[in-house]
User: Fold this.
Amino acid sequence: MEIKKQTKLKQLVNSEYFNNLFEYELMNYITKITKDDNEKYKALKNLYFDGILTFNDFRNKYSNDDNLKIWKGTRFGWPDELTNYMKGSSFRGKSRPEHSEKMKIKMKGIVRGESFRKTKKEQNSSIEFKIKFLINKNIDVSSKSENEIKDLYRTFISDVRKTNEHKINKVKNFLRTVKYLDEPLFSKFESNYKNVDITNENIDYIYPEMMSVISSISMVRNENMGKTKFFKTGFIKVNNCLNKTIIRYRSSWEIKTIEFLELNDIKYSYEPFYIQKKDGTLYLPDFLIQYEGKKILLEIKGFVRGLKGKINEEMKIEAAEKYCEENNIKYVYLNKVLTNINEIID
Assistant:
């Protein structure tokens, strides 16, 4: 499979159409700094997606003091012998206002925060972005009208990226990546799943865990990352809940679990009580389920964001386990939607 993939990459990088997109001088430089056609294609694809087609464009973004960045397998970076020098240079010092302004100009006005998300949304909704995106996915857009291109893009997003097949391939590619080899979170994920057969049956909990690892690593590497609102929230009327008649759920997994409990006529309490964590703050578990004389404290968690989130989650589990042991309650921490009561009582 890997040989077939590399052959396809070489065919594409050697195609006349793709090569003619780039200025001769830029092509010469990329050929010089990459070890083979596969790496050359990845570097060129990276440049194309960023709109860099000339050597002057490259120099404006990837140079300082006549030094040029090189291709490092997943990104352009400084040669090892220049790394220490660059760490101390004014180019890397963003604490001064003029440097910050310089970087804003380089990023075409995009800065992290609300303005970044707004600008990014405008860019991603443009027809130019959709064309680049589809070409990057090897989808033919030649001779297509603007409406046809939009339809192709929508089809890819809805019918491909949200499918289990796409998620399974995403996880498999993630396990093969070299980008996060030095990250403990990635190493732990890799050791857990490198010998596991990723299927439709387990992707629902492995995929969110992978996204959590990626998010946590990204937030550690980039402290300027903003918060993202991506959890599904809303209200639902309930009959089997012992402490509420209307529940304000906080995620898609919570609503699906509530629907399961309601459909199977299982009694439960939603966010039943607070438990104190070791740092003095309070933790509110998701469900207290009563089934055949047993009490089960259930936490549904599909996504944990950031390093602080990981630490907080560990404190919650520790506090809940202690509380349940002292009160003859079983504690279950579930990384998936509850679809079978036997999953938590066995």
Notes: Residues 1-5, 85-102, 104-111, 223-230 have pLDDT under 50 and may be disordered. The radius of gyration is 25 Å. Residues 31 and 40 are 6 Å apart (CA to CA). The chain has three domains: 2-139, 164-221, 234-345.
